[in-house]
Amino acid sequence: MNPEPTRDPNEPIPPLSLVFGYGPMALILLAGIGGWVLPGLWSGLALAAGWLFASAILLFLGGVVRGLSFFSPGGPRPAQIAMMLWLFALGFGSIAGAISHPMWIGFVLLILGYGSIAVYDPQAARAGLAPGYFARLRPRQMAIALVGLGLLLARALMI
Question: Which residues have a Cβ under 8 Å from the Cβ of 58 and sit 6 or more positions away?
């Protein structure tokens, strides 16, 4: 049996991964800022837009984990499938929970999901189950989203 492949954590981050990695996270951060600085109705719209957008991106990132699992030597690993299901459950739960409960519940679920990615993806990269640059990209990328989600959560708790 061949050993697990390893990926170089210092491999360059492709330019499109920078754009499509940081761009959506910046939008979550901007929604969080908007929730605090925009007046009245606009503040509520920033909260709703940030929540829906962050939920959609979390569901997408669950799909990324699943997509990468197709390229794992020997097929998908249980950890990959578990992470994909976890992210889908949190993303869907965020939408369902915020519709039927206070919006802050959705933000808590999103924070759990984005925080999980910040931990899981660097480990997956080091294990050869994701591009090596994920070890550097994901923690920074998720930190931006987590700040935005923290702002959104704090604002939702005040409404």
Answer: 87, 90, 91, 94, 110, 113, 114
> What's the rounded Cα separation, in Å, for the pair 62 and 3?
26
Residue among 153, 125, 154 nearest 139 (CA) = 125
Helices (H), the chain: 15-37, 40-69, 78-100, 103-126, 134-158
pLDDT tens digits for 35-92?
A: 999 999 999 999 999 999 999 999 999 999 999 999 888 889 999 999 999 999 999 9
Work out the pLDDT band at 143, boundaries 50, 70, 90.
very high
Rounded CA separation 129/61 (Å):
15
- Give the Å distances, CA to CA, from 17 to 12, 14, 28, 51, 137: 10, 5, 17, 23, 9
CA torsion angle for 114, 151, 140, 56 (degrees, to 10)? 40
Distance between CA atoms of residues 105 and 153, nearest Å: 8
> Could you tell me the maximum CA-CA distance found in the chain, to the nearest angstrom?
62
Domain boundaries, the chain: 15-158
* pTM of the full structure: 0.91
